[in-house]
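Entry 14. Structure prediction run on the chain below.
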Amino acid sequence: MWLSLWRHSTNRLKTIKNCFGLKVRIKNKMRHLSFLIIIIISCAPNQSKLTEVEPLILIKNADSLIIQRPKDIELRKAIVKAHLLLAKRNNDPQHYKSVIKLDPKNKSANYYINIQTGKDHHKKGHKNGQWDAIQSFSRAAALIDTLGEPYYWLGQAYEKKDQMDFELTLESYDKALSLYLEPPMLTKAKSARLNLLNRKKTYEDFWK
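Output returned:
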Protein backbone atom coordinates (compact mmCIF):
# COMPACT_ATOMS: atom_id res chain seq x y z
CA MET A 1 0.00 0.00 0.00
CA TRP A 2 2.77 2.44 0.95
CA LEU A 3 4.66 1.61 -2.25
CA SER A 4 1.59 2.46 -4.26
CA LEU A 5 1.13 5.72 -2.40
CA TRP A 6 4.81 6.53 -2.89
CA ARG A 7 4.50 6.09 -6.67
CA HIS A 8 1.30 8.12 -6.66
CA SER A 9 2.90 10.94 -4.70
CA THR A 10 5.86 11.05 -7.13
CA ASN A 11 3.51 11.44 -10.08
CA ARG A 12 1.65 14.25 -8.38
CA LEU A 13 4.61 16.49 -7.44
CA LYS A 14 3.75 18.99 -10.14
CA THR A 15 0.21 19.21 -8.84
CA ILE A 16 1.51 19.97 -5.35
CA LYS A 17 3.82 22.66 -6.67
CA ASN A 18 0.97 24.34 -8.59
CA CYS A 19 -1.24 24.19 -5.51
CA PHE A 20 1.22 25.47 -2.88
CA GLY A 21 4.15 26.84 -4.80
CA LEU A 22 6.44 24.47 -2.91
CA LYS A 23 9.41 22.55 -4.24
CA VAL A 24 9.01 19.21 -2.52
CA ARG A 25 11.94 16.78 -2.40
CA ILE A 26 11.02 13.19 -1.64
CA LYS A 27 13.09 11.52 1.08
CA ASN A 28 13.12 7.93 2.26
CA LYS A 29 11.42 8.76 5.52
CA MET A 30 7.85 7.90 6.32
CA ARG A 31 7.06 11.27 7.92
CA HIS A 32 7.97 13.07 4.67
CA LEU A 33 5.80 10.67 2.70
CA SER A 34 2.92 11.30 5.10
CA PHE A 35 3.30 15.03 4.60
CA LEU A 36 3.14 14.65 0.81
CA ILE A 37 0.14 12.32 0.93
CA ILE A 38 -1.88 14.67 3.11
CA ILE A 39 -1.22 17.63 0.81
CA ILE A 40 -2.01 15.50 -2.23
CA ILE A 41 -5.41 14.66 -0.80
CA SER A 42 -6.51 18.27 -1.09
CA CYS A 43 -5.16 21.64 -2.11
CA ALA A 44 -6.97 23.03 0.94
CA PRO A 45 -6.43 20.40 3.66
CA ASN A 46 -8.43 20.87 6.84
CA GLN A 47 -6.88 21.11 10.30
CA SER A 48 -7.53 17.48 11.18
CA LYS A 49 -5.46 16.38 8.17
CA LEU A 50 -2.73 18.94 8.78
CA THR A 51 -2.32 17.95 12.42
CA GLU A 52 -1.36 14.46 11.28
CA VAL A 53 1.78 15.94 9.73
CA GLU A 54 5.01 15.71 11.73
CA PRO A 55 5.03 19.13 13.53
CA LEU A 56 8.60 19.98 12.54
CA ILE A 57 7.86 19.38 8.85
CA LEU A 58 4.76 21.55 8.98
CA ILE A 59 6.65 24.37 10.73
CA LYS A 60 9.54 24.23 8.26
CA ASN A 61 7.05 24.73 5.43
CA ALA A 62 4.85 27.18 7.34
CA ASP A 63 6.04 30.41 5.69
CA SER A 64 5.59 29.08 2.16
CA LEU A 65 2.18 27.63 3.00
CA ILE A 66 0.96 30.86 4.59
CA ILE A 67 2.19 32.96 1.64
CA GLN A 68 0.18 30.79 -0.72
CA ARG A 69 -2.87 30.57 1.57
CA PRO A 70 -2.86 33.77 3.70
CA LYS A 71 -6.56 33.47 4.57
CA ASP A 72 -6.55 29.78 5.46
CA ILE A 73 -7.58 29.79 9.13
CA GLU A 74 -7.33 26.00 9.49
CA LEU A 75 -3.76 26.08 8.22
CA ARG A 76 -2.79 28.72 10.80
CA LYS A 77 -4.45 26.73 13.57
CA ALA A 78 -2.52 23.62 12.58
CA ILE A 79 0.78 25.55 12.58
CA VAL A 80 -0.01 27.04 15.99
CA LYS A 81 -0.80 23.57 17.33
CA ALA A 82 2.49 22.26 15.93
CA HIS A 83 4.45 25.05 17.64
CA LEU A 84 2.72 24.40 20.97
CA LEU A 85 3.43 20.68 20.71
CA LEU A 86 7.13 21.25 20.00
CA ALA A 87 7.41 23.89 22.71
CA LYS A 88 6.21 21.38 25.27
CA ARG A 89 8.09 18.41 23.81
CA ASN A 90 11.45 20.24 23.56
CA ASN A 91 10.96 22.77 26.37
CA ASP A 92 11.69 25.50 23.83
CA PRO A 93 10.02 28.87 24.61
CA GLN A 94 10.92 30.19 21.16
CA HIS A 95 7.94 28.28 19.78
CA TYR A 96 5.60 30.27 22.03
CA LYS A 97 6.91 33.49 20.49
CA SER A 98 6.21 32.05 17.06
CA VAL A 99 2.64 31.29 18.15
CA ILE A 100 2.13 34.90 19.26
CA LYS A 101 3.09 36.11 15.78
CA LEU A 102 0.32 33.98 14.30
CA ASP A 103 -2.20 34.29 17.12
CA PRO A 104 -1.42 37.25 19.46
CA LYS A 105 -4.24 36.34 21.86
CA ASN A 106 -3.38 32.66 22.22
CA LYS A 107 -3.83 31.88 25.90
CA SER A 108 -1.42 28.97 26.14
CA ALA A 109 1.45 30.85 24.50
CA ASN A 110 0.85 34.02 26.52
CA TYR A 111 0.60 31.94 29.69
CA TYR A 112 3.98 30.29 29.23
CA ILE A 113 5.62 33.52 28.09
CA ASN A 114 4.43 35.25 31.26
CA ILE A 115 5.64 32.33 33.40
CA GLN A 116 9.08 32.50 31.80
CA THR A 117 9.21 36.30 32.07
CA GLY A 118 8.25 36.05 35.72
CA LYS A 119 10.99 33.51 36.37
CA ASP A 120 13.54 35.80 34.73
CA HIS A 121 12.48 38.68 36.99
CA HIS A 122 12.43 36.39 40.03
CA LYS A 123 16.10 35.58 39.54
CA LYS A 124 16.91 39.21 40.24
CA GLY A 125 17.79 40.00 43.83
CA HIS A 126 16.15 43.41 44.25
CA LYS A 127 12.55 44.10 45.24
CA ASN A 128 11.64 45.76 41.95
CA GLY A 129 12.51 42.52 40.21
CA GLN A 130 10.13 40.64 42.49
CA TRP A 131 7.32 43.13 41.84
CA ASP A 132 7.83 42.62 38.10
CA ALA A 133 7.79 38.86 38.66
CA ILE A 134 4.56 39.13 40.66
CA GLN A 135 2.91 41.03 37.82
CA SER A 136 3.97 38.43 35.25
CA PHE A 137 2.85 35.49 37.38
CA SER A 138 -0.46 37.23 38.08
CA ARG A 139 -1.08 37.67 34.36
CA ALA A 140 -0.33 33.99 33.80
CA ALA A 141 -2.76 33.01 36.57
CA ALA A 142 -5.49 35.11 34.95
CA LEU A 143 -4.96 33.51 31.55
CA ILE A 144 -5.41 29.89 32.70
CA ASP A 145 -7.12 29.79 36.09
CA THR A 146 -7.04 26.01 36.50
CA LEU A 147 -3.26 25.70 36.91
CA GLY A 148 -1.47 26.14 40.21
CA GLU A 149 2.05 26.86 38.97
CA PRO A 150 1.64 30.65 38.72
CA TYR A 151 0.55 30.75 42.38
CA TYR A 152 3.55 28.70 43.45
CA TRP A 153 5.81 31.23 41.77
CA LEU A 154 3.81 34.08 43.26
CA GLY A 155 4.55 32.62 46.67
CA GLN A 156 8.22 32.39 45.81
CA ALA A 157 8.30 36.01 44.67
CA TYR A 158 6.44 37.29 47.75
CA GLU A 159 8.80 35.34 49.98
CA LYS A 160 11.88 36.70 48.23
CA LYS A 161 10.53 40.24 48.30
CA ASP A 162 9.81 40.16 52.02
CA GLN A 163 10.53 37.11 54.16
CA MET A 164 8.24 38.45 56.87
CA ASP A 165 5.23 38.60 54.53
CA PHE A 166 3.82 35.28 55.70
CA GLU A 167 0.20 36.03 54.83
CA LEU A 168 0.49 36.66 51.08
CA THR A 169 3.05 33.91 50.64
CA LEU A 170 0.97 31.30 52.46
CA GLU A 171 -2.15 32.38 50.58
CA SER A 172 -0.30 31.84 47.27
CA TYR A 173 0.94 28.38 48.22
CA ASP A 174 -2.52 27.35 49.42
CA LYS A 175 -4.04 28.53 46.15
CA ALA A 176 -1.41 26.63 44.16
CA LEU A 177 -2.18 23.42 46.06
CA SER A 178 -5.91 23.84 45.44
CA LEU A 179 -5.37 23.75 41.66
CA TYR A 180 -3.70 21.34 39.26
CA LEU A 181 0.04 20.88 39.67
CA GLU A 182 2.25 18.40 37.88
CA PRO A 183 3.94 15.98 40.34
CA PRO A 184 7.34 17.75 40.52
CA MET A 185 5.69 21.13 41.05
CA LEU A 186 3.28 19.63 43.60
CA THR A 187 6.24 18.39 45.64
CA LYS A 188 7.89 21.81 45.47
CA ALA A 189 4.71 23.59 46.56
CA LYS A 190 4.16 21.30 49.52
CA SER A 191 7.77 21.66 50.62
CA ALA A 192 7.71 25.46 50.25
CA ARG A 193 4.50 25.71 52.28
CA LEU A 194 5.88 23.50 55.05
CA ASN A 195 9.14 25.48 55.24
CA LEU A 196 7.17 28.71 55.39
CA LEU A 197 5.01 27.46 58.27
CA ASN A 198 8.08 26.29 60.18
CA ARG A 199 9.76 29.65 59.69
CA LYS A 200 6.57 31.46 60.71
CA LYS A 201 6.33 29.39 63.89
CA THR A 202 9.98 30.06 64.75
CA TYR A 203 9.40 33.78 64.30
CA GLU A 204 6.22 33.80 66.43
CA ASP A 205 7.86 31.70 69.17
CA PHE A 206 10.77 34.14 69.31
CA TRP A 207 8.44 37.07 70.03
CA LYS A 208 6.32 35.35 72.64
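The chain has two domains: 2-104, 115-206.
Filed with the rest of this week's runs.
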